[in-house]
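Onboarding guide, step 5: your first structure request.
Type a short instruction followed by the sequence, for example:

Predict the 3D structure of this protein.
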Amino acid sequence: MSLQNSYTWVRFPSRPPILMTSQEILEKYLEFYKKRGHKQIPNVSLVPQNDPTLLFVNSGMFPLVPYLSGEPHPLGKRLVNVQRAMRFAEDLNEVGDNIHTVAFHMIGNWSLGDYFKDEQLPWAYEFLVEQMRLDPKKMIATVFMGDKDAPKDEVSIKILQKIFSKYGISAKENERIFARPKKDNWWQRGDSLGELGGPDSEIHYFIGKGNAQGKDPIEHEKEFVEVGNSVFIQYKKTEKGWSELPQKNVDFGGGLERIAMVVQGKTDIFETDNFWPIILKIQELSGKKYKENELTTRAMRILTDHIRASVFLSMDGVAPGNKDQGYVLRRLIRRMVRNGRVLGIEKDISVSLVPIVCKTFSWLYPQLIEKEDDIKKIFSDEEIKFGKTLDKGAREFEKRKIEILNFTGTSDWLKLSEIAFDLYQSLGYPLEIFIQDIREVAPDIDEKEIEKLFNEKFGEHKDQSRSGAEQKFKGGLADQSENTIKYHTATHLLHMALRKVLGDQIVQHGSNITGERLRFDFNHDKKLSKEEIKKVEDLVNKIIEAGIPVNFEILPKEEALKSGAIHAFNEKYPDQVKVYFIGKNIKEAHSKEFCGGPHVKNTSEIGHIEIYKQDKIGENLLRIYAHIKK
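The system replies with C-alpha cells like these:
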C-alpha cells in the first residue's frame, strides 16, 4: 500500500474531546484494527511462563517474542490485543504523582513481516485523532536520530509530515517532530548476538499550558504524556553490528489508562474511570478529600494503585509470600496498610476496597466477581499480620525519633541505615516503611543513599527474596540462546515422562528455563523416589537418543484439544493454536503441547538430561531441577 493511499486527506476543525469510558476506548481500538485485518489475541496472565528473566509480563508484546523472530503465528501476520502488565522496580517509588502506576493495560497491534511504516504511522494517528477525537495540535512526534548502528529515520519523518499536513499542521523538525538518540527512540530485546531491535516513533500529547509546538517532550516531560509508540523491528544484532532483517515487524503499544486520561480531559490519571471509583471509596473511608493536601493526595494515589495491582495479581493466582511474585504482592499490601494509616484508616483496608476494584473492572475481567471473597480473605489475613509488625515498629520509631531527627539534620545516612536495619532485623520493620516515616518529618533525606548503605553494610543479611524480585525486573525478555531452546524442548519431554511414570493427573504448575538448567513445578504429594527419577530420566533420554523430529501444526482450538495436546487449563487460547509435537505426526507423537516455541528441530540436539534436585514447594506441589550432562 502506498503512502498516498493509506489514508484519506481531510482537515478537522478544532473541537473539545468527546468523553469516553475506558471500555469504549478499548472497544473502538480493537474494532479499528480488526477492520484492517487484525486478529485479536488473548490477554494472558501477569505471571510469565518459561522466562527466568522477567517477574511479570511487562508489555503486550511479551507473548509474541517467538513470532517476532520468525515463528509463524496461528492467527496470521496481523494481530491486536489488550494486555495487563506490571512494572515494579523502577515505577514503585514514582507512584504518588499524577501519572505513574505499577499495573496498567497496554493496547497493541503487530505486523509480523506484513505492513510497515507507511501503514502503521497513519493508522496510529488516525485512531487517536479521528476515533478518540484528540487534538492533533497537541501532538508531538519523536523519531530515532541515527548513530553508528543505524541511520536517522528519515522515512518516518516524511510520513509524519504528511500525517500532520492532513490535519492542517506544518510539521518541521524541532518544532513538531524531534529526533532523539537511542536511549529515547530505539527498542531492542537484549544486548547479545541475535537479538532484535529497531527505531521507534513515539506520540506525546501536550497536557501543559500554552502551545505544544517547539517543545521537545523529553526535555519538557512534565507537560506531556506518551500515548503511543510504534516500534519498527527491522534489525538483528550480529558480530558486525546491526543488520537488516528479512522480516520487518511493527510493534505498537499504547497505555490504555494514559489514553483514557487525555481522552477524558484530565491531567491526573487517578481522576479517570480506571481509578476514580476507588478514590471515592477511600474518601468515604477516611473522611478526607483527595486534594486536601499533598500528603493526602499522595497516600490516596498509592493506596488506589496498589489495591488495583494487588487484585490483578491475586486474580492470576499469586499469593503473598517471601519470593518472587508473592513477595511483590506482600510488599504492595504492606504499602497499602502504611498509607491507609496516613489517611486514618487503621484496619480492613482490603475488605473495604477489594469489592470496588472487582466491580470497576468486571467489564474486562468477569471472573473477579467470583473471586472477590477469596481475594478479600487472603488480603485481610496479610493485612492483620503486617498490622502487628507495623504497630511494633511505629512504637520503636517514636522512641528513637529524636535520635533519628538528629541524624537527618547532619545527613548521617550511615547511622540512619544502621537504625533501619536494627528495626528490620529485630521487628521485621521494612526499610521502605522506615524511609516513609522519615520522609514525613524530614522530606529532604537521601533515601537512595540510605538504601545503598543498608544493602552494602548488611548485604549478607539482606532479604534475598527482595533482591531476587527486583533483579528480575531489570531483566528483559526470555533468552533464546541455543542452550535455552534445548532446555525448552527438554521440558516438554520431562512433562511427558512424569505423566507416564506418575499418571495423567500430573499437570505443570510453572517452569523456569535458563541456559544452564530447567526447573519444572507440578502437582505431586511427595518427593520422587530414586527409582521414579531413574524411570523419568530413562524415558526422556531414550527419546533424545532416538533422534525424533520436533514439529508443529497450527490447528483450530477444538481440534487441538481433541488431539490430546497438553495445555494450561486456566489459560485463554485463541481460536487457532500452535501445537508442538515430538514425533513423525501429531497422532502418534511422544509429546504434544500447546506452545508458541521455539524448539530444536530434532531431539538428538539436546544431550542427556539428569534430574539433580527436587523440593517440596507447597501442599501437593513438587519442584524438580534438571540439566544436560556434560
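Each response can be followed by summary notes, for example: The radius of gyration is 26 Å.
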